[in-house]
Amino acid sequence: RDNVKLKMVSKANILKDEIINEDNIHFLRASSDGIELNEFKNLRQLFSRSAIPKDTLIQWKDLKINL
């Protein structure tokens, strides 16, 4: 299957000096052509989605997710 890019977006980009933690980091799941498919509010929501198996490989360096 194709690799689906996972973009990490933090509210800290908007509100300066905000501490970045699990709750204020947002994940945008995008298709290969850059169209946003889903937004995950935090890590718990990301992994609670049945569409993403628990053994999904996430490479934090480039934030790519292999489905």
As a percent range, the share of helical residues equals under 10%
Strand count, sense and barrel status of the largest sheet are: 5 strands, antiparallel
- For the secondary structure, the number of strands is 5
Order of helices and strands: EEEHEE
Describe the structure.
By secondary structure, the protein is mainly beta. It has one domain. 9% of the residues lie in helices and 37% in strands. The chain contains one helix and five strands, in the order βββαββ. It has one helix spanning 43-48; strands spanning 3-10, 25-30, 36-40, 57-59, 64-66. The chain has a five-stranded antiparallel sheet. It is globular. Residues 10-22, 33-37 and 52-67 have low confidence and may be disordered.
Produce a short descriptive summary.
The protein has one helix at residues 43-48, and strands at residues 3-10, 25-30, 36-40, 57-59, 64-66. With 67 residues, the chain is mainly beta.
